[in-house]
Amino acid sequence: MNTSQRIFFNEVATRDGFQIEPGFIPTDDKIALVDALSDCGYAKIEVTSFTSPKAIPMLRDAEEVMGRIRRVPGVEYTVLVPNLRGAERALESRADELNLVMSVSETHNLANLRMPREKSFAALSDVIRHVDGGTPINVSLSCSFGCPMEGDVPFTEVLRWAERFAGLGVRGLTLCDTTGMAHPAQVSRMAEALQQRFSDLQLTMHFHNTRGMGLANVLAAVQSGITRLDGSLGGLGGCPYAPGASGNVSSEDAIHMLDAMGYDIGIDLTKLLAVARQLPALVGHDVPGQVARAGRISELHAPPAFVQALRAAQA
Fold it and tell me: Of 40, 143, 176, 239, which residue is the catalytic one?
């Protein structure tokens, strides 16, 4: 276990988390949250999505948010881009990275993006050619660890799509456990195989906690050599095509775990927990994250008053 290896975190709450919130998060609040997260030490913050406002009304203020956030040196401000028009909007908004998404499951791609995988690949290829290396591109492959409608997704399928995008010159690939179907042994096998095959790419893993294995999968990935991870503040987010699915792995819970184990996380956890504790009021409901409620394991509590009396009686 190489705990000296730096782990890089990508915060996705303001995109992946906010996009399925039932109520619109005010633009000023989004900007304030991104600015607060920028001071915590993240490698990347996925700020918003340049999807059609009709498709995702919660993120209809993408241009304004990107235009008003305070950009901290060393933090990459990445955005989700679904097509060429979205890419043009993102480039105008000076995004540091474009994140393109499709599913390795045909059924999930049809349900989520309303098109077969080949059509998605063609559309995303157009984006990559249009950008032509001017802005780094990451491709997120949904359902890499299983599909809620098809079941197991063969690793050969994941590899096939990863190779096709790598061949187009993308900078990074994110393997997404979109509906929380991954388990640690599977994660370890995939992490090791992908690192051997794509040692020149940024490889990121994105887990959900749908079945309670989120942190176990984070640990399996890190212990297998993965150094880049997505997380969502408070565990916000989820997939509408996975009934009962909970959200993403909680950023602060994953970061706290790795910090406690001695990994170099590059995150100011005190600042991050202060931000996380403001989240329920911002979204108007409780969130799944646990460390923000319970505190770090290093935060001790005074013993009950009667304990002092018992000690005195035994002295």
Answer: 239
Question: What φ, ψ does residue 178 adopt, rounded to 5°?
Answer: -60, -35
Q: Is 239 a catalytic residue?
A: yes
The amino acid at residue 123 is: A
Q: Going along the chain, which residue ranges are E strands?
A: 8-11, 44-49, 76-81, 97-103, 137-142, 172-176, 202-206, 228-231
pTM: 0.94
Tokens of 98: 């474009």
Report phi then psi at 288, rounded to 5.
Answer: -70, -20
pLDDT in tens, 248-307: 999 999 999 999 999 999 999 999 999 999 999 999 999 999 999 999 999 998 889 899
Q: Which domains does the chain have, with CATH numbers?
A: 8-314 (3.20.20.70)
